[in-house]
Amino acid sequence: MSTFLHTTITRDQFIEKYKNKSGSNGTVKVVKTVLKNAEDLCQDLYSRSLDEVIAELDRVNDDTALINFLQSFIDKLFHKGFKDTQMQGYLGYLRQYTKSRGVKVSDDIRDEISIPTSEIEPRVGVEKQQIKELLSLIRDPKYYTLVLFLVSSACRVQEAMHIRVEDIDFLDSGIAQINLKASYVKEKKLSRTTFVSRECVSFLLCCG
């Protein structure tokens, strides 16, 4: 059924939507990576552009064809070495883009897609000696303090960059309590508290 209403958006508009929604360049980079991989898949399988394939999916309006397309996308990611959590996220972005181009995509369709489970690599902790060796290579006091702060607090770099003096409580015991606001943390949902060592506090005070 034809309509004069705008029912689809362009690729640039789709990317812009996520840029405005998340405010994160990282999210935009992920969305572009998803579309690039989907574009490559369409060229490899059909010698067509992504938008041409989506237009054909819209025309045939067949769930099986859509499922096969999305499964092929996942298979491509798996063979490129992507982890299952990444593939789940990428599938979500591709589903949203396909929907934004006018294809009817039900939420239940993801249950029809098989996502291979990645082997879980054991996490290996960093030994104190390794930390000392790393710090011994840093000559700039500010960079030394930053690395020491990251190690001591277990903060991400972007979280550390947001911290202000008013977020730090220097305790009588000599350590410091770092109060991370929800807007600082990666998920931007819950605030959290962490602590840094006496050594880190001394460098913070010297470099502050």
What best-fitting shape do the alpha-carbon axes yield?
Answer: elongated
Q: What fraction of residues sit in β-strands?
A: 5-15%
Low-confidence stretches: none
Number of helices: 9
**Helix-residue proportion:** 55-70%
Mean pLDDT: 87
What gap, in angstroms, lies between the N and C termini?
65 Å
Number of domains: 2
What letter string, H or E per element, gives the SSE order?
Answer: HHHHHHHHEEEH
Total DSSP E strands? 3
What is the topology, as strand order, of the major beta sheet? Answer: 1-2-3
Derived structural class: mainly alpha
Reported for the largest beta sheet, the result is: 3 strands, antiparallel
Radius of gyration (Å): 23 Å
Question: What would the keywords be for this entry?
Answer:
208 residues; 2 domains; single chain; 9 helices; mainly alpha
Give a verbal description of the structure.
The protein has 208 residues and is mainly alpha-helical. It folds into 2 domains: 11-112, no CATH class; 128-207, no CATH class. It has 9 helices and 3 strands, in the order H-H-H-H-H-H-H-H-E-E-E-H. The chain has helices spanning 11-22, 25-46, 50-60, 63-79, 84-100, 128-136, 141-153, 157-162, 198-207, and strands at 168-170, 176-180, 192-196. A hairpin with a 5-residue loop joins strand 1 (168-170) and strand 2 (176-180). Helix 1 packs antiparallel against helix 2, helix 2 (25-46) packs across helix 5 and helix 7 (141-153) runs antiparallel to helix 9 (198-207). The N and C termini lie far apart (65 Å). The mean pLDDT is 87.
